[in-house]
Specification:
By secondary structure, this protein is an alpha/beta fold. It is 29% helix and 26% strand.
């Protein structure tokens, strides 16, 4: 649990980011002792570059990119970027929302390591990344018929039958 000074420092950082990149930041809040920035999808690359290069932010490390599925929303998917500033001892979570048809700009130009993270999000959720250098499946075979981390993916009976038949046979 953060003390009040640390929480105030995160609020100040959120206000700095929001003021400097008003075109890209919808809102910010603190959750689980981390700054969470809700961003505009089409401005995500500029915001990520700002977060890396601005001396008050200095988020030099991309920790992870993941997807989240909220099927009840119009823009059902979120792409979440987890960044770390080792020098300033801060973490930030940047979130953008999208739908099944709208691609999110790729962060590979800012962090080359985003390549595999974005491929995994594409593979598991079907979220596309615009200007990605090699957007193809990374975990499943290329003809796999679905995206298994979507909430509407059936738990059984779509693509995994050959695996379950072997498991069922061995269990007997």
């Amino acid at each position: 649990m953060l003390n009040q000074d640390a929480i105030d420092a995160l609020k100040d950082l959120g206000e700095h980011i929001s003021a400097a990149r008003a075109d890209a930041v919808k809102s910010f809040h603190i959750n689980m002792d981390e700054l969470v920035v809700m961003a505009e999808r089409d401005h995500i690359v500029g915001l990520l570059r700002f977060l890396r290069e601005d001396p008050q932010c200095d988020f030099e490390t991309l920790i992870d990119i993941c997807g989240v599925d909220y099927p009840e929303r119009g823009e059902r998917f979120e792409v979440v970027y987890h960044l770390l500033s080792m020098h300033l001892n801060h973490r930030v979570r940047v979130r953008v929302s999208t739908d099944e048809d709208t691609a999110v700009p790729s962060a590979c130009a800012v962090w080359p390591a985003a390549n595999w993270f974005e491929r995994e999000v594409f593979d598991m959720f079907g979220i596309r990344f615009r200007n990605h250098p090699d957007l193809r499946r990374i975990l499943l075979w290329k003809d796999f018929p679905a995206h298994p981390l979507r909430k509407d993916y059936p738990l059984r009976g779509r693509g995994e039958r050959e695996f379950y038949s072997v498991l069922d046979r061995d269990a007997r």
